[in-house]
Backbone:
């Protein structure tokens, strides 16, 4: 199937071609035509499947012949859980509308002054990408109205619920016109998501394109047994020995990220950390320098890394295993994209055997162990029982507390993030993500309210646009 066959007009097709994309991904092939036709949609699609373009392209097509929008009005509202994801959506809108006339869009978020955002909204926008908290702030100040709203998109709805946005979402739904088109995207259709959908979508088309809790076949996964105290030295050794030039490293805590960054720098490795205690400017700068190759290692916590979108990222390292096994899938899904090979290495100490077992149960796979000479653990890593005795058992869910402290850390009532090409995949040219607006506020390091439920994994990329 081609993009032409999906009913997209020449200016949008030109923008898609300029990005180097030739064929739609499964989610795009299934969603674009129904959205253009005005259907409500419930789509089970993870990050990396091209879902951003799956709703951006048809929305822009519907706006191509729209009349000018009124003052302080928004014709399309896209709600996202984090500023990083909002940045991706915002750039996707700009990228694919570049050859269209009169399409105005903006991204609103906390973490920066609200007055410039109010100014951007004054003349009205065709597409408003927002996180819930700042959107409510703007609405309460009279900066935005929804009398002309035609389309509502809830992107990564499951993560919005996990982060505690249900009350904000309900408030927003109450102020929107009842006659509108609704598009709901979620990694999975849990009971909570279906309960939300009952009051949101009308006779929706339901599509699903990615299996839950799957890991990409292009990602080589293995673990290094090592004593906890020697993890920093082992990581430095791996980076030097294998000449890794772009490594995304995950730690469980903010303080651990800071500590590891200092240890890497002391060993001559240029590194930076991003987490909830970092200012938005510092996070944007670190991400930009990592993408440009100015620094070789980016040390991140799970929440802060949300939205990092880098084509052909070769290495992901789990310095600490996550408490929530689904986060493992999300972490390693950042490499091995667009058909490229990637590698995910986990440094595992004896006290993490429970986390390892939970991960192996979830992905239904026994991870290869490889001890590094000179770093053999004094405390042997016990055998994991994650898959033992029943290789076909269904993945089990872990409802642990995960990074709740990370979620609870506050950067005030706001958020922001690094801008990248939505869920973009490999391109023919270079793709440099730019710092941009996104995210939200209230008690979360990404500017989101602290959640009580667990997050779910994101998927892996294909060769289609994001």
Residues:
């Amino acid at each position: 199937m081609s993009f032409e066959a999906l009913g997209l007009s020449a200016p949008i097709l030109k923008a898609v071609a300029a990005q180097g994309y030739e064929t739609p991904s499964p989610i795009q092939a299934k969603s674009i035509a129904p959205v253009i036709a005005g259907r409500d949609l419930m789509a089970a699609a993870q990050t990396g499947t091209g879902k951003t373009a799956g709703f951006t392209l048809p929305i822009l097509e519907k706006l191509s012949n729209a009349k000018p929008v009124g003052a302080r009005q928004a014709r399309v509202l896209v709600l996202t859980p984090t500023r990083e994801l909002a940045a991706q959506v915002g750039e996707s809108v700009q990228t694919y509308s570049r050859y269209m006339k009169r399409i105005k869009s903006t991204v609103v978020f906390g973490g920066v002054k609200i007055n410039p955002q109010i100014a951007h909204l004054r003349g009205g926008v065709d597409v408003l990408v927002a996180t819930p908290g700042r959107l409510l702030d703007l609405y309460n100040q009279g900066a935005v109205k929804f009398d002309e709203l035609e389309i509502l998109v809830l992107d990564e709805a499951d993560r919005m619920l996990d982060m505690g946005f249900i009350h904000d979402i309900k408030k927003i739904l109450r102020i929107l016109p009842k006659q509108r088109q609704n598009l709901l995207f979620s990694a999975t259709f849990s009971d909570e998501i279906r309960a939300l959908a009952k009051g949101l979508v009308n006779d929706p088309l339901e599509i699903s394109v990615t299996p839950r809790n799957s890991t990409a076949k292009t990602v080589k996964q293995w673990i290094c047994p090592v004593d906890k105290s020697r993890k920093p030295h082992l990581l430095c050794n791996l980076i030097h020995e294998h000449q890794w030039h772009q490594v995304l490293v995950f730690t469980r805590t903010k303080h651990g990220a800071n500590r590891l960054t200092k240890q890497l720098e002391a060993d001559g490795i240029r590194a930076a950390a991003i987490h909830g205690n970092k200012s938005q400017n510092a996070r944007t700068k670190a991400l930009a320098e990592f993408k440009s190759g100015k620094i070789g290692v980016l040390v991140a916590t799970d929440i802060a890394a949300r939205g990092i979108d880098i084509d052909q990222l070769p290495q992901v390292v789990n310095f600490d295993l996550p408490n929530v096994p689904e986060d493992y899938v999300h972490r390693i899904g950042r490499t091995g994209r667009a058909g490229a090979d990637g590698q995910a290495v986990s440094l595992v100490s004896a006290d993490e055997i429970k986390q390892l077992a939970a991960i192996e149960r979830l992905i239904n796979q026994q991870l290869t162990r490889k001890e590094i000479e000179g770093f053999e653990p004094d405390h042997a890593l016990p055998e994991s029982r994650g898959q033992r005795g029943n290789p076909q058992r269904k993945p089990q869910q872990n409802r642990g507390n995960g990074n709740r402290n990370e979620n609870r850390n506050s950067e005030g009532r706001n958020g922001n993030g690094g801008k990248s090409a939505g869920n973009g995949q490999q391109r023919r040219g270079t793709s440099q993500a730019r710092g941009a607006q996104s995210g939200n506020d209230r008690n979360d390091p990404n500017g989101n309210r602290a959640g009580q439920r667990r997050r779910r994994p994101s998927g892996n990329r294909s060769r289609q646009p994001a």
User: Anything to note?
Assistant: Residues 138 and 181 are 22 Å apart (CA to CA). The longest strand covers residues 219-225. Confidence is low (pLDDT under 50) at residues 387-463.
